[in-house]
Amino acid sequence: MQYLASPKNNSIKELKKLATARGRRRQGRYLLEGEHLVEEALQNHAEIQQLYVTTKFLQHDPKHLVKQLFDQTTEISEAVAQELTATVHPQGIFAVLTLPQVTLPSELHGKWLLLERIQDPGNLGTMIRTADAAGLQGVIISPDSADVWQSKVQRAMQGSQFHLPIITAELAPMIRQLKQEANLTILGTLVDAQAQDYQNYQAPADWALIMGNEAGGLTEATAQLTDQNLYIPLRGQAESLNVAIAAGILMYSL
Amino acid sequence: MQYLASPKNNSIKELKKLATARGRRRQGRYLLEGEHLVEEALQNHAEIQQLYVTTKFLQHDPKHLVKQLFDQTTEISEAVAQELTATVHPQGIFAVLTLPQVTLPSELHGKWLLLERIQDPGNLGTMIRTADAAGLQGVIISPDSADVWQSKVQRAMQGSQFHLPIITAELAPMIRQLKQEANLTILGTLVDAQAQDYQNYQAPADWALIMGNEAGGLTEATAQLTDQNLYIPLRGQAESLNVAIAAGILMYSL
């Protein structure tokens, strides 16, 4: 097993570039950090190119992750781990994965979550995790949203990228395809005159729910493509709900 | 109006100490940042001791916040704002507020949210904001949770501290009081043999819902005080829901 001690090593410098969306796009891969997420990747047969573990992690690896990825493993120093980590207390395990190229499945059906211009990585990751928990078919994210493959999104989505397709694409053509090919009802979350309290809405079996930007909501162009808009009543004095909370309430009730 | 240019000024040094829970406790006050939150504080007649605004903010104050707080206002330099801010791009407005001493109202009724050992400030603030939106009576937080008066919690709760009582106290005596004085049904979120799917549960009019730590859930001592435990079914492959999402789904459905 190779041992890398210096954070100035060229391969470490390349890995550090995976901290940006540009670096990930250029290299076609992303970095996954932490024991639990690497375990999820393994269990779901994700394509793990390399594994980097500290000497300390090597000595205590209760889930035998290194054994399963022995040929791809490089031992690193604590200094290298500190260089690669996005956390304050790194667990000492990092995997390099192929950036998935996901497209719509050929047989479209079920329930979908569509996200437009979501800016907060925590909100984005949490909504994907909730879509997974609620049994949705997949998530489609507009390209002007936060990048899915950054560490904060990964921490919030807790491995859900291995459970359901996550597609980054312009929403308008996707919405048309979901309507035409699968006859999905497109649900928006814009408050207009026709908007309905979600508690009184009888949802069809198949739908796509669109959640918009934290401050601005849906764009007008996207709002025009919805079949029905829903709202969540505010009973107290709060002006609005956090977008991930609203998405959670809607995905679970519809 | 006084002008403070140097971040090394003694009063600025004291304000900086409000970034820690210890500093806030010692000084009995906390710092609120941003135009929207200061406006919320004003609208809700919170006790604003001082206001600090940059020269740039003074020149463009569309909501006339400074006018309403003129006697308490100090003009500060951008350098001071950079020293005080918890954000990357400060808006140039900071208010110093009295740390509220909130106790249970004498007439207990309605719906309450109880939080035990919540560690993530974003989760804590979002749950308080959702409790506000859902029309709950108040929130009680165990002392070993994240501190409510830190900036990350304030950004997530969006002024909800001005809308409903937020009480930091040991949960066990509070739960006993809510049961004995108000006859509230105590709902937990522990998965035990008697736990019920929340969708099949007929909630009474008055209840207290307890949400536990992100990783560990409720402590055993607290779990023993619940009248009914509820769970949210996981239909996909996700192992769990984010605690704030789970709280949102439950508060809105019960």
Which key features would you list for this structure?
homodimer; 254 residues; alpha/beta; 60s Ribosomal Protein L30, Chain: A; Alpha/beta knot; 2 domains; 5-stranded mixed beta sheet; methyltransferase (chains A, B); RNA binding (chains A, B)
Task: Note down, in words, how this protein is organized.
Two copies of one chain form a homodimer. The termini of chain A are far apart. By secondary structure, chain A is α/β, with parallel strands linked by helices. Helix content of chain A is 34%, strand content 20%. Chain A is elongated. The longest helix of chain A is centred in the middle third of the chain and has 13 residues, at 121-133. In chain A, α7 (121-133) packs parallel to α8 (151-157). Chain A has two domains: 2-98, Ribosomal protein L30/S12 (60s Ribosomal Protein L30, Chain: A); 111-253, SPOUT methyltransferase, trefoil knot domain (Alpha/beta knot), CATH 3.40.1280.10. Chain A is built from eleven helices and twelve strands. In chain A, the strands form two sheets. In chain A, strands 8-7-6-11-9-12-10 form a seven-stranded parallel β-sheet. At the A-B interface, α7 and α11 of A face α7 and α11 of B. Chains A, B: One of its GO terms (cellular component) is cytoplasm. Chains A, B: This is RNA methyltransferase. Chains A, B: Belongs to the class IV-like SAM-binding methyltransferase superfamily. RNA methyltransferase TrmH family.
